[in-house]
Amino acid sequence: MTLAVQHWPGPLLMPASGLLLIGLRTPQGEDRTQARLLVRQALGSVVTSGGVSISHASGFTVAAVHRHGQVGIDLMRLEGGLIPDWEIVAREYLGPAAVARIAACTDDRRARCFAQAWTQREAQLKCHGCGLVEWAGAPVLDDGGCATLALPQGYVGTVVVATA
Known about the structure:
Blueprint: E1 2-4, E2 6-7, E3 19-25, H1 33-44, E4 51-57, E5 60-66, E6 71-77, H2 86-93, H3 96-104, H4 110-127, E7 145-150, E8 155-161
Helix pairs in contact: 3-4
């Protein structure tokens, strides 16, 4: 399932599902100061209660607001192709099933497959209030309501909503 992201500035409408996804263009680079200010402005008009999660990659920021519970969101910018040691990173942080899925992807899709698996894991951990840990010590977490984000070209993102 892929979910639409509402772009800000502009009107932000809380969907009936209670899950609002916000995307905003931010300055290129890794300095997150401006991105934090902009996302706070966007969130200020809609957050009254529930869960909030934010993720930033150079040039774009996403935020998720879920008025019925916890939410996790993660974003990755695709640039420069797949990292050379992707298999080691995937094995250490994403687990054997993800390594197999990524390895099964064609060469031209492998970077996107890795980014999708990575953002899903990060969003899952954020949703459950956990930090990034190696797979061997990672808690077993429910995927909950997991969806891919419809984002500008060059970005991959996932949102996870707690189901219990």
